[in-house]
Write a structure and sequence with these properties.
The structure holds two protein chains of two kinds. Chain A is an alpha/beta fold. Chain A contains 16 helices and 19 strands. In chain A, helix 12 runs parallel beside helix 15. Chain B is built from six helices and seven strands, in the order E-H-H-E-H-E-H-E-E-E-E-H-H. Chain B is an alpha/beta fold. Classes of the chains: A alpha/beta, B alpha/beta. The structure holds iron/sulfur cluster. Iron/sulfur cluster binds next to helix 4 and helix 11 of chain A.
């Protein structure tokens, strides 16, 4: 069996499952946020009664992150609804806005707070819940109805997916990042190339990546339509998890004779920096092909491109220079935001590197990654052309239907911010 | 699910993602308050660029400005319909606008799952490309029992894919009723 099949089997009390069958599984962690949490709660109460109890308060994690720093009355109301629910149910894992507990973007927060554990099964009301799969666990996104059923019962039905395997070999050159790898894969198989399937990432280059970079790979499984992304756990995984939780976990791996639906091999040393052109994540071009494209903005942020290492990469390029277009820096979480002020590059904090270069600094949240209310930090308002480290570039994704979004690695985005046109990071790399 | 559904077609292109079905800025309305809830109907499909709203001509809004309901019963899409976010607001918005059926070449899995589990629009899969053969405004009729779609405007008929094992959830109404029938949660008459 593959890791995905094994995790699902364990959670339905069976020794074996096969792709295609539907099973009811027990959920270890249910995650929700401010956009999908309130309607999930409404459905939960409708179906289980006004006084119904959450199946297991220890297993419900609520992370407001989407519409946080806005005056929008409805958005603020959503956070109040979450707060009231957390109070009513005495939920230990609610990370309230405006308190020291506030975290920011849910998928990174789950990792930082130790909710991602090898061998476990996590469901979230957000399509990028597949991010957690970097920890050798099954994780996928669902809608409010499914989440409400879990809230009441701890269970969900799942169809066991077939697994596609992506093997990365060779040494990753310094001008490439995980974002280039996953954009290359999505370009190859298309936005629906992995629909209903698991995407398992394997190979020495994957295991040479940090957890943050691995999360960039699994984060974007959904951009190929994947049900989940998954990477077998290793020492790096265990070290990361152990530093954040005492909870027990059990590592599982794909068997030698596991059946894969298909297998793709990449020699990473031969790959090039890539972008996804507007308006689809599979609309790939090499940076060389689109170099010189005029830009209005650059954006470094989100669950896939707003991690500490993403900023370290961007800072390496930007340090000591000035950006010539509006450049937005949005850390995914408060932990990352704090780290920007303590992590240094040649004696200067990353925060200062960006400020001195003229970047606009945002607060930990999803911010303009998904547009949001008109007063959202960095949101597109017109026909801007932007290069961004986020994960989606569908029309209107970053706020304006007229805007054009290029997706790229933090290195490429930073290099482009310095020139105001799409720029190959190899040009500015010393 | 009704056995026979008749109404007008609204045709869109490939990879209609959830931001096009209901733009993120509109996800804040309450589903419980009727005056807010109807906003989902009003803004359903409003994220699609106007040139391709209602193919082949475009420039046809799914819901007329200042209306809360659409006159279209069928949404006809291409590949990967509903890709993008997990927001259940997407199938909900289509349903709230009055649509009953989506017929697309293929679906993104979360959207598909949401339509079934929530008991919203019924997602049928066409056997091939269909959004280039039907025009916005065509008069369609669907026999849901055998999955036969008739275009009364052109006289053409299409056989759609069988619904498969999700038919059980569809016939239960939504995943809660399905779970009750399977003994997973107490029957509705036993609670409160
Ligand atoms: S940062 Fe963007 S992709 Fe990630 S959870 Fe927030 S809105 Fe979704």
């Amino acid at each position: 069996m593959t890791i995905t099949e094994k995790v699902i089997a364990r959670h339905c009390g069976r020794s074996r499952v096969v792709p295609g069958e539907s099973v009811w599984v027990d959920v270890d962690i249910l995650m929700t946020h401010d956009v999908c949490g309130p309607p999930t709660i409404d459905i939960f109460k409708r179906e289980f009664g006004e006084d119904a109890k959450v199946w297991d308060p220890e297993k419900l994690v609520i992370l407001p992150d989407h519409y946080i720093f806005t005056q929008n009355h409805h958005a603020n109301r959503n956070v109040r609804l979450l707060r009231a629910f957390a109070e009513e149910h005495n939920l230990p894992h609610y990370y309230d806005v405006g308190t020291p507990r506030y975290k920011g973007v849910c998928h990174m927060a789950l990792a930082e707070e130790g909710f991602n554990r090898p061998g476990s099964l996590l469901i979230g009301t957000d399509s990028h819940t597949c991010t957690s799969g970097a920890f050798g666990m099954f994780s996928t996104g669902v809608g409010n109805t499914d989440a409400a059923l879990i809230m009441g019962t701890g269970k969900i039905w799942l169809r066991v997916p077939e697994t596609m395997r992506f093997i990365f070999e060779g040494v990753l050159p310094p001008y490439l990042m995980a974002k280039d790898l996953i954009l290359a894969v999505i370009g190859d198989i298309g936005c629906d190339g992995a629909t209903y399937r698991a995407m398992e990432f394997d190979g020495e280059s994957v295991y040479s990546l940090s957890m943050q970079e691995r999360m960039t790979l699994t984060n974007m499984a959904i951009e190929a339509g994947g049900k989940n992304g998954i990477i077998g756990p290793d020492e790096t995984t265990i070290e990361y998890v152990r530093a954040r939780t005492d909870a027990p976990f059990e590592c599982v791996y794909s068997d030698e004779d596991a059946r894969f639906q298909s297998e793709y091999r990449y020699d990473v040393s031969t790959l090039e920096p890539v972008v996804a052109k507007p308006h689809r994540p599979d609309n790939r071009a090499s940076v060389v092909e689109v170099a010189g494209t005029r830009l209005d903005r650059a954006y470094v942020g989100s669950c896939t491109g707003g991690k500490l290492e993403d900023f370290q990469a961007a800072a390496q390029v930007i340090k000591g220079q000035e950006v010539v277009i509006d450049t937005y820096i949005v850390p995914a979480t408060t932990e990352i935001s704090n780290a920007l002020r303590t992590t240094t590059l040649d004696g200067t904090t990353l925060w200062d590197v960006f400020v001195e270069a003229g970047c606009k600094m945002g607060q930990a949240s999803c911010a303009a990654c998904l547009g949001g209310p008109p007063d959202t930090f960095g949101r597109m308002q017109g026909s801007e052309v932007v290069i961004s480290t986020t994960n989606r570039n569908f029309p209107g994704r970053m706020g304006s239907k007229q805007a054009s979004v290029y997706l790229a690695s933090p290195l490429t985005v930073a290099a482009s911010a310095l020139n105001g046109v799409i720029t190959d990071p190899r040009e500015v790399f010393v | 699910m009704e056995s026979n559904i008749r109404g007008l077609a609204y045709v869109v292109g490939d990879a209609i993602d959830t931001d096009q079905i209901i733009p993120a800025e509109h996800l804040v309305y309450s589903l419980k308050k009727p005056d807010e809830r109807r906003m989902y109907g009003r803004f359903a499909m409003s994220g699609i660029p106007v040139q391709v709203q209602g193919l082949p001509e475009g420039h046809i809004p799914f819901t007329e400005p200042d209306k809360y309901e659409s006159k279209f019963t069928f949404v006809i899409g291409g590949t990967n319909f509903g890709c993008g976010s997990s927001r259940e607001h997407a199938p909900f918005a289509l349903t709230e606008a009055g649509a009953k059926v989506v017929v697309a070449e293929s679906y993104a899995r979360i959207f598909y799952r949401n339509t079934i589990d929530g008991g919203f629009v019924v997602p049928f899969e066409a056997l091939g490309k269909i959004n280039d053969q039907i025009c916005t405004g065509d008069d369609l009729e669907l026999d849901t029992r055998i999955g036969q779609l008739t275009n009364h405007t052109t006289g053409k008929e299409y056989l759609l894919k069988p619904l498969g094992d999700v038919a059980e959830i569809l016939s239960a109404g939504n995943v809660f009723e399905y779970a009750r029938r399977n003994g997973l949660i107490a029957p509705s008459d036993e609670r409160h």
